[in-house]
Design goal:
Blueprint lengths: L5 H7 L3 E4 H5 L16 H10 L4 E5 L13 H18 L2 E6 L18 H21 L3 E4 L5 E2 L7 H22 L4 E4 L9 E2 L4 H9 L9 E3 L2 E2 L1 H4 L5 H10 L6 E3 L20 H14 L5 E3 L12 H25 L1 H7 L17 H10 L4 H7 L4 H12 L4
Parallel strand pairs: 1-2, 1-11, 2-3, 3-4, 4-6, 6-8, 9-10, 10-11
Antiparallel strand pairs: 5-7
The structure holds 5-thio-alpha-D-glucopyranose and manganese (II) ion (MN).
């Protein structure tokens, strides 16, 4: 085993989580066979326990709890018990639980957005079961990744109705959580495409728009977990803006992290892996360091297919922790650097540079906005945003010269 930097790992491990599917992944792709041996869900849980990772996230289909496959209630409950024992023995908690609404042929034309009410009901039932199971595991979130809800042929599903159906499903899940007295919250995970040609819940902004369609009392029960770099970078979008929008809207649930070459298929490389954009990855950690230092960093990716050895999974876990610890340390040091602080100074203000407060005296505020002789040309002449200087500081810092 390569010796990993424990001080970097220690910096993030307490707030880390891994999807169990990362570890179960055997490295097959649409063109090639598996390269890694299969391991059981219990083995994956034990591995994270051994490495002292505090959280894991579970997919119903990966852990033998798919209610469409395991229909006997007693057998289902017995399986929950087996997993609870494995989690307890490993000292690992469930961070997020998620129903697979995208694998079975029944949902091939959509789950909750299907034109067929029976399919919609089947999907809703699976979501409700996931909420029950999540409660038993003490999970904080149930993620709705509606990967099969999208289109190739747009004549099939009215897109207005599609978004109404999604909002209805989320709203019903919230009502069920309230009725049952559960603590779990719902998280929407956007992705622009793959496996569908176009997926309805495509971007962070789209997910926020869906939350905005919910009754006001249900909106605080729903967050968003962006997958960065992968899902936003697949559409060429800016990961830092994605986090910023979610923090500003107070809807950031947690992060899914991994590596990605922009505008490609969903690569799910390890964090910083392959041709991932280092600066975008730095900016993700900058947002975390500055705004959500306690944010759970959940790695949703898998080892490269080149890695087939016995240590591949362990090294994958340690590598992600080391890489994110390294970037978080870089971001934290950047924010604390005197030169950076001097340039940024009071850059984060929100007011308009006048004393009048619009919340207490709106008329006085408007009067003050209109009062002085602001001149656009004069302002333009003296404006010095220092973007180029800051970019240089970022580059010097990232490459170890600052
Ligand atoms: C699937 C997807 C991920 C989601 C998982 C949880 S399912 O593995 O690729 O991005 O986070 O729903
Ligand atoms: Mn994900």
């Amino acid at each position: 085993m390569i010796p990993y930097r424990t001080e970097l790992i220690d910096a993030v491990i307490g707030q880390s989580s891994f999807g169990i599917w990362d570890l179960l992944n055997k490295g097959s792709d649409p063109f090639g066979a598996p390269v890694r041996d299969a391991i059981s869900a219990e083995d994956a849980i034990a591995l994270l326990g051994k490495l002292k990772v505090p959280h894991i996230s579970l997919h119903d289909i990966d852990v033998g709890l798919d209610p469409w496959l395991l229909t006997d209630p007693a057998a289902f409950q017995a399986r929950v018990g087996v997993l609870q024992d494995a989690l307890k023995a490993a000292g690992v908690g469930v961070w997020m639980y998620t129903p697979c609404e995208f694998h079975h042929p029944a949902v091939r034309a959509g789950s909750v957005t299907s034109n067929n009410a029976d399919v919609r009901r089947l999907a809703l039932r699976k979501l409700l079961t996931a909420l029950d199971v999540a409660d038993q595991f003490g999970a904080s979130w149930v993620t709705m990744w509606l990967g099969r809800d999208g289109s190739e042929v747009d004549a099939l599903i009215d897109s207005t109705v599609a978004y109404e159906r999604i909002a209805d499903a989320v709203s019903l899940a919230c009502k069920y959580i309230k009725q049952q007295g559960y603590k779990v919250k719902i998280s929407l995970e956007p992705k622009p495409n793959e496996p569908r040609g176009d997926i309805y819940v495509s971007t962070v902004g789209t997910a926020l728009g869906i939350i905005g369609m919910l009754p006001a009392d249900e909106q605080p029960m729903v967050g968003v977990n962006p997958e960065l770099l992968q899902h936003e970078a697949m559409a060429g979008l800016n990961a830092y803006h994605a986090i910023g929008q979610l923090v500003a809207a107070d809807r950031l649930a947690f992060l899914h992290l991994g590596g990605q070459t922009p505008l490609r298929y969903d690569m799910d490389h390890p964090f910083l892996g392959g041709n991932s954009d280092l600066k975008q990855s730095f900016y993700i950690m900058l947002a975390v360091a500055k705004h959500r230092p306690d944010c759970v960093l959940e790695f949703d990716c898998h080892p490269f297919r080149t890695e087939a050895g016995p240590d591949a999974r362990e090294e994958f876990v340690l590598g992600n922790l080391e890489a994110s610890g390294m970037m978080l340390a870089k971001a934290t040091a950047f924010l604390a650097h005197p030169e950076v602080q001097q340039v940024l100074g009071s850059c984060d203000g929100r007011d308009f540079g006048i004393a009048a407060d619009p919340a207490t005296d709106f008329a006085a505020f408007i009067q003050a906005v209109r009062a002085d002789a602001l001149d656009a040309d004069a302002l333009a002449a003296k404006l010095n945003p220092q973007a180029q200087y800051l970019d240089r500081l970022v580059n010097l810092h990232l490459l170890g010269y600052l």
